[in-house]
Amino acid sequence: MSPPCQDSFLQQGALALFPDFTIPAVMLGVVCGGAALFAFFAVIAWPQLGALASVVAGLCMIAFEVVEILVVGFTPMQTPDQWLAWLQVVYMALGALLVILGARLWKAETSSYRLRTLSP
Questions:
Q1: What's the pLDDT tens digit per position in 24-36?
Q2: 60 within 8 A of 71, measured Cβ to Cβ
Q3: For 13, left (φ over 0), alpha (ψ -120 to 50), or beta?
Q4: Boundaries of every domain in the chain
């Protein structure tokens, strides 16, 4: 039985970026998940900081998905017989939604989209 990621770009010789999916999975969980978790609690405790954290968390999610598409490929285009999996598009849309909602919360808290210092 071959490893599940044998045919992936990540496993191709000198171009391989990672030996397996452990490092990208940890990055996804710690960076993207941690940023979103921090944003969640910050929105409750300090809305201005939460608004900025939501924008950052959304941009992290979008950046991770863009890198994933560049490295692994766009999921529906890997094999013609594979069921179309649009999770990359869904997560990019969720990241964009986080950015938009964070920006709207920032405007609601500061009455402007301009970035200024946080007030307590």
A1: 788 888 989 999 9
A2: no
A3: left
A4: 9-110
